Amino acid sequence: MHSSKNNMYADVExxxxxxxxxxxxxxxxxxxxxxxxxxxxxxIGLPCTEQKWQAKGEEYTNIIASYNTSKTxxxxxxxxxxxxxxxxxxxxxxxxxxxxxxxxRIIAHFAPNLDYRIDFVAYCLEExxxxxxxxxxxxxxxxSLKDANTEVLGMICYEMIGYFSDxxxxxxxxxxxxxxxxxxxxxxxxxxxxxEFSHFNNQVHQFMRQKNEIDVQVISFPTGDDLAGLSDHxxxxxxxxxxxxxxxxxxxxxxxxxxxxxxxxxxxxxxxCAVVNCTYHAIVNL
Length: 286
Prior knowledge:
This protein has about 290 residues and is of the alpha/beta class.
């Protein structure tokens, strides 16, 4: 209803066309991306800051844009902009950065009256070799919130929101139990979290479903290991903040995961718009 396919296509097109690829080794490319993200946030009038840290002797940057800055309680909405190795990374994770930017655009446009602040955060260093270390941009950000005694409502992580299929039996699963509980056609999006924060997970899920633009599923795993914690939301759990991931099931569905075939042509921008619209509805109703 609200989101723009053209905006998101332009975002993904920019991110996937950068050479050399936007991985941790190519600092100039990462700077081009962070500058683009900052520019897009600034265009819509959101105040923007840079959060910098050192990893392996180099400096990396998170971009943070804030809405409703007079409020103390915060909702974090984030996505990572780096890519794994030498590939376009259209789904992983240009799709999510496009979703993040478009969500911010809609918020800025409609200016909802909320009793909490929203911080939109674009992270660097989610991918290997930094994944699951304290050098991840999301860990740096989550720790900064804890150090400042920030009251956090929760964290919503966009991670791979662009790959879908309407072909029957296009959705695979790692085990029969999951296969028996979830759809067999890969045309849905999933709210992924852990049971400790199931109240937050279910709230987001219910509000997303109310929009009724795409099938939204939810799964709360017993622990944060394995499939539950495969993106930036994991680092908010480390500080006892509710956090979840909105995800197209990643490598369980998308054969292009971490491959050179992860290109813009493989994405479904209509479905991406639906995901953003549903997430927006959840964000402004929490």
